[in-house]
Design brief:
The longest helix has 39 residues. The chain has a domain of 70 residues. The protein has 107 residues and is mostly helical. It is 81% helix and 0% strand. It is elongated and about 65 Å long. α1 packs across α2 and α3 runs antiparallel to α4. It contains four helices and no strands.
Amino acid sequence: LRQDFIRTAHAKGLSRARVLMRHALPNAILPVIAMIGIDIGIFMGGIVIVESVFGWPGIGQLAWQAIQRVDIPIIMGVTLVSACAIVLGNLVADIATLFADPRIKVR
């Protein structure tokens, strides 16, 4: 909020809400959107621990049991599903970034 373009917007006489919504938010939301896309991978890694601790049936518990039994096809399948979730999360984050900031163009 101490950047020059924010001060300029205030100097033009814009209200505080208008400055925050039109000038500050689009610049501040981009790193948040990018981190959400990256966090999808972290969440997929944490599923194994959460499901093992609480005993919930799911893909994390399936992966853990497959690792203990050295069941290669299931390990490969879980890895493929996890990788697809990470790629999809990053794709959604990139598309959301396009909508959040009109200065970004697709080539």
